[in-house]
Amino acid sequence: MSGTSLDGIDVAIVDIRRRRIHPVAFRSIAYPKAVRAALLGVSDTMTHTATISRLNFLLGELYAEAVCETCKRRRVPLESIDVCGLHGQTIFHEGQPVEYLGRCVSSTLQIGEAAVVAERTGLRVVSNFRERDIAAGGTGAPLVPYLDYLLFRNRWRNRVALNLGGIANITAIPAAAGLEDVAAFDTGPGNMVIDALVAHMTEGRETFDRNGRIARTGEVHQGLLESMIGDPYLKKKGPKTAGREQFGQQFVSGLIATGIPLPDLIATATEFTVYAAVYQIYRIIEPDEIIVSGGGLHNRWMMRRIREECSSAAVLSSAEFGIDPDAKEAIAFAVLASEFVEGRPANVPSATGARHPVRLGKISAN
Hints:
By secondary structure, the chain is of the alpha/beta class. 40% of the residues lie in helices and 22% in strands. It has helices at residues 33-42, 49-73, 114-121, 130-135, 145-152, 192-201, 213-217, 222-229, 232-235, 244-247, 249-256, 262-284, 300-309, 328-341, 349-352; strands spanning 8-17, 20-30, 84-86, 89-100, 103-111, 125-127, 159-164, 167-173, 183-189, 289-293, 314-317, 362-364. It has a 5-stranded mixed sheet with strand order 9-8-7-10-11, sandwiched between helices. The mean pLDDT is 95.
């Protein structure tokens, strides 16, 4: 898995038996700085097809190396792996139809060539998970709710899985819910806007707000926060999906152009992430427990603010359920790959808006 924060490659090795999920190993490998910069240069921006093509095959090589290295370091024989699920790196996602050349189309593009991974590792590789859901009328995201349902459904408690990645998303699982009762969508930016502001403030020396230190010392600009809260995306009902198209460089440049001191912008962006998540959670469910994963879990200030705003619920880490908070999305695509080879649908139509359940993925087989 490679997320919208562009931090690098997350590799999860997972034992899956009869939909019982047991994480075996996890490793995160940072992208080389030049690769991260190149990916930022092709993400929702004007670029050259040659750059995309070259990055597609380069990432395939990096993914294959990451799989082999993780197996070696964790002493898991490569030949014991049954199937590899490869999400790839999203460089464009437009889950809602737009008019284009006389037609209305939705689209998504993840790069990282699966054929290269299959060739280098000798594994069956399942990739391109989002396209089939879009073809079936869905938004192609979020796809992790399928895993959230398998992991966290409970007979007596209303639970919300909150993932604080580059984009924040929620999965609401009412007590005793069936899969059709699950609601899930992106709430807006998670760490993406904060990370970009920190990188700008430090001239690239830092890429995230460690422990929320900057946000804690900055002052929330109430006027700007109210303007951000007024974003129509927050009021829109799901299914819906967000990404760099809404909260990328253009959004960040607009914040910087206000002239507000950068520590205050970071504090305000952090508060916006918290507000957007909490507001949309309570719009759809009264949670007993909120189970948090993703890089934002390590931002102590953000977590403090979430706990303050959700005082009626227990705010927990996914680690308390045996799931490494940094590994959950990688685990999700292992599960989706397993479901594909088992011939089972794995989208959640109530989350994506698809007309019906579908098998997700394409296979590069050896």
